[in-house]
Amino acid sequence: MSKRIVVIGTGFAGLYSALAARRLIYLNSQGAASEATNIEVVVIAPEARLVVRPRLYQADPSSMALPLDDIFRVTGIQFIKGTVGAIQTTKHEINLIDDTGAPSTVSYDRLILAAGSQLVRPNVPGLEQHAFSVDQIEEAAKLETHLSGLAAYPPSLARNTVVVCGGGFTGIELAAELPARLRSIFGQNAGVRVIVIDREDEIGPDLGPGPRPVIAQALSELGVEVKLGTAVTGVDANGIIAATGERLEALTVVWTAGVAATTLAKQIPGEKDKFGRLYVDRDLRVPSARDIFATGDAACAATDDDGHYTMMSCQHAIPLGRSAGNNAAADLLGIPTNPYSQPGYGNCLDLGASGAVVTDGWDRKVICTGSHAKSAKNYINTALIYPPKADLTEALAAADPTIQIEIPS
């Protein structure tokens, strides 16, 4: 009797979950009588594509989606196009809707939730109607179209101003990128204004004090203004209003503050962290739903024995996917799992024309800055995080859960 592993999502964690499951099944499928030959791997997502989400702050975001049809075909992964509406954990069933609106149901023996995360949009007046984002590829493309269209407007300070709401990782990278992008639109001698506003008192609050002086210096060199300790209380077509009562005139406002795990996690019983991520054990299994594994941005997993937990980044999503897929397949095969562990940790933050900054360890010690760090960032963005080719041997090898990602320095 056949069994089925269902993966929800085609992000980094979803892709590598499916590949890792197929890898272990392939390695254990020698002989027609092998139980592994009867295990299907099915991926459900709205599109068979991987969006290189960490790059959506850059220009030309529409080009940052990679089709997965060929890699699914050569590795024997089945793809179902649809949007998951409900996960019925007691029935081991998933209810989904295809792009025509037709409903269907898919059963599973093991489920891997890898549906990622999304930007949190708080109830700020005018935010939904007037603010842009770079959270999803369609949203980033919408911002790109808007920026390109600004050249048709009469020159003004508001036209040439972008307010970035949120001074975290994404907000910093976008703000550092924008001065050059705006000058490419308005002319190299145009006066442009980029402002980062954040309710926290420090830039990059989650990045720690280590890289903060480098970030502050880079933003200053780029002419990016930073307003800290100030919340945004309103957004309209012509700018934002701060809690201080100050108004910033801008035809472009980009919201980057806050992220939460997929809302599908709410349908799975189990303890969750402040981001809505499911706590998982070392095999990435949800303890209260033993046939379900959570991975990527949907999982809060211990990276080591020192109290560190995964971050919402591709640095953790790819190894998490490898482990989740491997362990779900191992569970069905009745063979030992490979517990997730990722003690190494590093960051590489893009700082636009000022280069980048690379840090090492959870204390985020700066080990590289400037053009050298920029080369490392370019390698990460254009090679390290990209999936393998549609070749069976290469694709399955890339899904080995013993591989560790290292941030280059």
From TrEMBL:
It comes from Paecilomyces lecythidis. This is FAD/NAD(P)-binding domain-containing protein. Belongs to the NADH dehydrogenase family. Residues 4-318 form the FAD/NAD(P)-binding domain. InterPro entries: FAD/NAD-bd_sf, FAD/NAD-binding_dom, NADH-Q_oxidoreductase. Keywords: FAD, Flavoprotein, Oxidoreductase. Its cofactor is FAD. Pfam families: Pyr_redox_2.
